Amino acid sequence: MGSKARKKQIWCPQPLTPLMEGPDPEMQEEGGKKESSWEVIREWFRAQKGGLPNPGTNLSTSGYGSGGTIPAKRQDLRLLLGVLGCPLAPIPQANDPIDHHLLHIKDIPFETSIAHYIIQQYLAATGCLKQQKCNKNMYASGSVKMVCCETEVSAGRNVKTLGTRSGESGCFVLWQMLPGMWSLELVVGGNKVVAGSDGKTVWRHTPWLGTHAAKGPQRPLRRLIQGLDPKSTASLFAKAQCLGEKRIGEDDCFVLKVSADRAAVMERSEGPAEVIRHALYGYFCQKSGLLIYLEDSHLTRVEAPENETVYWETTIGSSIADYRDVDGVLIAHQGRSIATVFRCGEVSMEYTRTRMEEAWSIDDVVFNVPGLSMDYFIAPADILDSTLQSP
Prior knowledge:
Layout: H1 2-8, H2 25-29, H3 37-50, H4 59-62, H5 70-85, H6 98-102, H7 110-126, E1 137-155, E2 158-162, E3 166-177, E4 181-188, E5 191-198, E6 202-206, E7 210-213, H8 230-236, E8 241-248, E9 251-259, H9 262-267, E10 273-285, E11 291-303, E12 309-326, E13 329-345, E14 351-367, H10 381-389
Antiparallel strand pairs: 1-2, 1-3, 1-14, 3-4, 4-5, 5-6, 6-7, 8-9, 9-10, 10-11, 11-12, 12-13, 13-14
Helix pairs in contact: 3-5
């Protein structure tokens, strides 16, 4: 029966669509490569505000935010990949194991000791505490769907909600090797984003920005702590504080918080953009002990050329679900993230708020891949050159 069924299968070749990996011709025509991701976000908001139709204009036929024009759709995709593609956690992972902190429980605040207990329950629930040997590396592949939902534009008393739910589907491949080395390849809408870390420097490459290194201390990829790597998640919350309890859906959760200190956020400031704060909140289910929701808030102040101070707040909330056993460890295989980018002036009453979504699923997870070495995580040559030249 099996051989007959295989004979009846008809294999249809599927052509590979071209990917945008090199410099984007459209960006070169606009005046060259942008200096930072903030420039891309600012250009997108400027286009939204500049394309605001008159009160009597029909939004369905004006072309604004409808995705009918290719440039507008490409701008939406750049914003999606810039915000949801490969965000980083706010702080580095702790070098010391959780058990080391528990030995000095008398010297730490009560809220922190409670957080340590919750993290221990999380490690036990995911099966990490009973592992006989440590996993040296990990491979994961999955699919994503990103949607730019709507933009709310306020000009004084007038508030307009514009745009439609235009989305793109894609896939990603993620490699990880301890300690602190990872590599991500994400393809969405014909554009490829590559990011990685060699354990010292985090870098990213996009067709419209080129290759650049992330400023500040080395921080883990946010996708890894969304239920893919429980030990990295536990290390990230090693010095967390328990804020109390909160209900997420049908589950009562403990809320843990970690945030970057002032010195760390100052290192991440670049040019006119000054990072004010970056905090991460983890919601751990009281019944199962698992991480079911993750939220981080990132506030940046930008000095505009017109001497107007503009604040940008990016908030990403991720629901984490569908935990499955992979070699004795529970790994989340499904989730959904909702991101909000809020822009407002220091004096002006005008503001702009954009909402976007990402649904992701994990197709395959493999631990201890044979042959994977540190050479796979070497940063690009231009990143290494800039690192050597920096003081």
